[in-house]
Amino acid sequence: MSGPSQHELLDEFSPLLRSTKQGNPIPPHTQLLIALRVYASGSFQHIGDTSGPTQASISRIFTRITNIMNTKAAEEINMPSTPQQL
Fold first, then answer.
1. N or C: which end of the chain has fewer CB within 10 A?
2. Which stretches of sequence are listed as region Disordered (predicted)?
3. Are 66 and 56 in contact (CB under 8 A)?
4. How far apart are CA 53 and CA 35, in angstroms?
5. Domain limits, the chain
6. What DSSP character marks residue 82?
7. pLDDT one-digit tens code per residue, 29-77
8. What does the alpha-carbon distance between residue 86 and residue 67 come to, in Å, rounded to a whole number?
9. What letters, b where the CB count within 10 A reaches 16 and e where it falls short, cover 3-35?
10. CB within 8 A of 72, min separation 6: which ones?
């Protein structure tokens, strides 16, 4: 994913994201990058090894970003409901 695409996603998601409130806050842009890495790798298991957060934090971040994406998809994607719209 290109840098501009990441910035567009962050601009779209930022109002819905908050920094984590634990001991070491994780800023929204890092949360988005963590979620994108989980999507790309298909695994939670080894992400914390390189980016720092615990697996539990990664799981919460992934869930939060996925919920935001699902909400945005429901708002943005309109499936045809009649044969004429196909």
1. C
2. 1-24
3. no
4. 12
5. 3-77
6. S
7. 888 888 988 888 887 766 655 657 888 888 888 999 999 989 888 888 8
8. 28
9. eeeeeebeeebeeebeebeeeeebebebbbbbb
10. 12, 13
